[in-house]
Amino acid sequence: MHFIYNQLICFVSFIFARLAPHLKPSTKLRRFICMQKGLIQEIEKVMASVNDERPVIWFHAASYGEYNIARPIVRHLHASGRWRIVLTFFSPTGLDMYHTYKEEVDAVFMLPLDTEAQAHAFLDAVNPQKAVFLVSEYWANYLLELRRRQIPAFLISANITRKALPVRWFGGLWREAMQAFEHISVLNEASRQRLLHVGIHRVSVVGDPLFDNVLSRAAKEYHNTIIEHFAAQGDVFIAGSIHNDKDLQLVTKLANHHPDIRFLIVPHEISEEILFNIMRRLKGAARLYSECNEQTDFGSTQTLIIDFMGALTYLYRYARWAYVGGGFTPYLHSVIEATAYGLPVAFGPRVERKLVAKELIAEGIGRSVRFWMELNKWFCDLKSDNARMDVIASRARMYMQAHQGSTETIVKTISAYER
Question: What region, left, alpha or beta, does residue 339 occupy, with left being phi > 0 and alpha being psi -120 to 50 degrees?
Answer without folding.
Answer: alpha
